[in-house]
Amino acid sequence: MIIIIIIMKKSLVTLFCLMFVSAPFAAELTVYSARGEHLIKPIFDQYTKKTGTKIRFTTGKAPMLLQKLVSEGKDSKADLLITVDAGNLWQAKQKGLFASVDSPILRTNIPAHLRDPANYWFGLSLRARTIIYNSTNLKAKDLVGYADLAEPKWKNRLCLRTSKKVYNQSLVAMLIEDHGNKGAQKIVEGWIKNLAAPVFSNDSSVINALAAGQCDVGIVNTYYLARIISKNPKLPVKIFWADQSTTGTHVNISGAGVLNTSKNKIEARKFLEWLSSQEAQGLFADLNHEYPANPVVSANSLVKNWGVFKQNKLNVSSLGKKQKEAVMLMDRAQYK
Amino acid sequence: MLNINKISDRFSGNFAKKLFVYLCVSIVLAPLLLNFTAFTHIDNDIWNHLISENILWQLCKNSLILCFSVALLSLVLGVSLGAIVAFFDFPARKYFEWLFIMPLSIPAYVFAFIYVGAFEYSSPINSFFHQYFSFDLNPPKDALYFTAPVLALAFYPYVYLYSKNAFQRGMRKPLENARSLGLNPIQAFFRCLLPLARPAIAGALLLVIMESLADFGAVSIFNYDTFTTAIYKTWFSLQSINGAAQLSSALSIFAILLIYLDFQKQNRKSFASKSLVSKDQRKRFQISKFWRIMFFVYASIIILISFVFPMLQLLYWAAHHLQNIDYRYLHFLSQSAIIATVAATICVGLSFLLVLIQVRSQNTKHKFLIRLSTLGYALPGSILAVGVYSLFAKFHLTHLAFTALITGLCIRFLSVSFNQLQGARLQYSDRLSEAAQSLGKPVTQRLGLLHWPLLKNTLLTAFLLVFVDVAKEMPITLMTRPFGWSPLSVRIYEMTAEGEWQKAALPAVFLVLLSCLPILFFIFYDRKKST
Predict the structure, then answer these.
(1) What structural domains and CATH numbers belong to chain A?
(2) Contacts of A68 in chain B (CB under 8 A)
(3) What's the pLDDT tens digit per position in B96-119?
(4) Which residue of A has its CA nearest to B128?
(5) Could you report how far apart the first and last alpha carbons of chain B are, in Å?
(6) Cβ contacts of B238 within 8 Å, gap of 6 or more
(7) ipTM score of the complex?
(8) Prediction pTM value
(9) Partner of B74 for a Cys bridge, out of A174, A315, B135, B156, CB 3.0 to 4.6 A?
């Protein structure tokens, strides 16, 4: 018993020393991330190796992480929130979770349309959602853009993912911005008339359906195609950059912001700046075949082969603003 | 556990019991009641949209049809399998007895993904039909015809396990009596045995119904929209957590109604057999060779489609990602095992006490209140997770992540062990307990000498069920787990979140292996008992 007490006392003293002695030397950041562990840990590890700053993180679904932060309030230990889709970042700002970060580095590294106008959050990787086609049945010259897929010539030839996925909600939000509510609804209604199969629950299924000849055209995020093509280079599915002569292809982001409750805002800002740097950007995007948000950094070779494309320059924060309207529109158009 | 009873004997037993019941019920109901507070703010535009576009009505209808179909299919599968395993000898019966539980170890959404993947247009199976028979296995236009059977394959083990246990608890005598009164075996089964096993089967059906009602993962893979889809849509897409909480309250009211109906029915009838089950009663009936083969074929087909096929698919995918296995999988596995063991032990312990108190209680309101403690199962997991987490946050207790996690899981899965134990407890007469009491035996001895031996098997099955359910649970674990914890279900989620289903197969296989552990223990325990 006495031995146990002595050991406990000793360990308490050590713990005490550790807490107060080591704090100034090893900073620690806490990150909440909606990107999975396998997509972020390698980057965090690299940062720790470089700076000694330890990164503690937890993962989860974006809406649940937001709710978690809201309930924690001032007690929250989190410093940064990383999430996918601009809609989620926009919501986090609306809920007052982010602090504005005034950083010349971030402003230089991240193009204006990929960050919050008031610098509350920043895009870190780019996700293009564009048209794909079956290359045995179609040629690139047959295609134009998103609105064209609503034309009767595509009847029974289109495959889409469910409207419940935020990627499609953001795409329709962009269409609302570009074509107005009525115009966008007409496009979505046209898509639904042209469907060759009931909507799919994920992008990979859309790609497989195209490859198998169930339909000729579809709309997906490019990294899903990259993932499948890297395993099966002969897949008869090709990318078409939508609306290149007009508004440009729809892009969304995965991004991050420093949290209002962070007790370590300077460290958090430094980390965010590093994430936007050339060193981190390549890795951040590469892990999931996405495009780096920093235009100086080039994408990996497979993605690079698809060529340069014109992005829709609409500020991605509009995607969050219009998300609700987009969802209601898709319901009215019977897009399941 | 025992301390509570000692205290309860020394002081007024009733007071301690009441305190215990109220404490349990209020912990379970707290996050549910939190949903009702959301009614202080109504998002008019969202409600208008949901009602004017006829969305809500359509989704209610979809939910009801789905629940009914899944319940019916699980009932037919579960009871028939439970009956043949309990009453008849056929080849490999001993193995089937445990194999039928195995589908529970595969999360319903993984089931959904495997089956959708297997039969979609681009699948190898369809390509084969397309090429050689010019025929496409297009998924049915109404997603219900695909969703309901697959969910039934995932959930029938509840009905199977509950009914098998009920049948094994001494149904031979009533069956023989019915036969001697001139009923043929089929009549005897439907008119005598099924009504006797009713409380157990109803408990299992309630689980199946609530699980189908609150399911989100599987139905979204089939793209079959239910009421729960509307809850998530309101939260995730229409950006209103309040609206989602309001819709969830409607779901809990529906669940309360179901529980009340079951409660009323149970309260009116007594199902108790007057005597204890003798070994002789557990003997199975001899049947002709033809029926032995028929039963074997039936059992094999069900196991093939509900476990072997999904498992082969998972193994096939996992084989492509074997390079991902490293020492970390030991951590994932052990974290899952710790969470599941702790949660299952607490759930079983609490339900054991609650069931014993409920059965002896004379007060109907009190009894119903105890039944309400099983309500957590009817809420979508993420909504419950938010409820539990915000309660902990309100009291500035978020650093107690593990406690929050276990609390959430226990609230969710208490009904799994409760319904199981209640079914078993109602099958033996109260008189036994009264007799023991009149002999002056204190509560602890009554528990140890009477209820424990009688309920031991059921307690172990209840433990197994909760263990398996907790291990595969995703939303609560995802939201409340402590920093650095990454149990298998979270691992599966992380892979599937970006559509990397094949990578998710590896942790899914580990999840099945983990669930095998308690099942193997059972087989071993059973063998030891029979020798």
Answers:
(1) 28-126+251-304 (3.40.190.10), 127-250+311-332 (3.40.190.10)
(2) 389, 479
(3) 998 998 999 899 989 998 998 888
(4) A212
(5) 32
(6) A324, A327, A328, B43, B46, B49
(7) 0.86
(8) 0.88
(9) B156
